[in-house]
Amino acid sequence: MRSELGVSLAYGLLATLGQSIVTGEFDKTGFPTEAELCVKFGASRTVMREAVKMLSAKGLISSRQRQGTRVEPVENWNLLDPDVLRWLMERPYSNKIFLEFAQMRLAIEPAAAALAAENQDRPAIASIREGLQAMIDHAGQPDLALKADIDFHVAILKASGNPFFWRLKPLITNALNLSIQLTNKIAGHMADIQAHQSILVAIEKGDADTARRSSEAILVESVNLIGKVQAA
Q1: Chain segment 171-222, per-residue pLDDT in tens
Q2: How far apart are CA 109 and CA 115, in angstroms?
Q3: Which pTM was predicted?
Q4: Is 170 helix (H, G, I), strand (E, B) or coil?
Q5: Same domain assignment for residues 139 and 158
């Protein structure tokens, strides 16, 4: 049985190496050998192998006999993995990934809002309202307002009744934490409460078309804001 310390060290190495891969640190030098990594980080082979195994599971690296370990091209990375997405969004030149993520949200969240209106899961809809109320209550507290904004959008995924949408919760939560901060910064203000309320009211009324359009309006604005920054 692995010790908790060993697991903790492996996850620490995972984060460090994952960020290094995503920011291109090994693009020219190639990925170090296991022995080199152990010396550099003062880690045991067991712990390093665990970290490398997790990097491989995320599609960031691959190992081949007689060829060693290499960094995989971006198209092979598991972009739906919350860690990979966070590392991508944290790198200095990440506006493109923010735009792509906003485009993905535009494809998913309006459909989830429409389904939530049709599904009429009252407890789940109550969670959406709680998220909106928290946004109102904490309007002057950016960190709490951001959390409430995320809770609002994630609650819509739950209210859709579609288990595949709900499985996106870790991804959406992680990425929203960064992307909403960016769009708020670009817009110069926190989330539009009235626009969010329009989604909720439509869902509560069972008006799927309006719920979809209201969700689309918020997301189209996000796409346009990020697009302007990227074009600048």
Answers
A1: 888 777 777 777 777 666 677 899 999 999 999 999 999 999 999 999 998 8
A2: 10
A3: 0.76
A4: helix
A5: yes
| pLDDT given at position 188 | 64
Strand partners, 68: 64
Query: Do 136 and 169 fall within a single domain?
Result: yes
Whether 53 and 133 map to the same domain: the answer is no
Nearest to 108 by CA among 150, 148, 161, 168: 168
**Neighbouring residues of 22: CB distance < 8 A, sequence distance ≥ 6:** 60, 84, 87, 88, 91
| Domain co-membership, 42 together with 149 | no
Same domain as 158, residue 90: yes
Give residue 77's identity as a one-letter amino acid code: W
DSSP string, 1-27: ---HHHHHHHHHHHHHHHHHHHTTTTT
Residues spanned by the domain of 10: 4-76
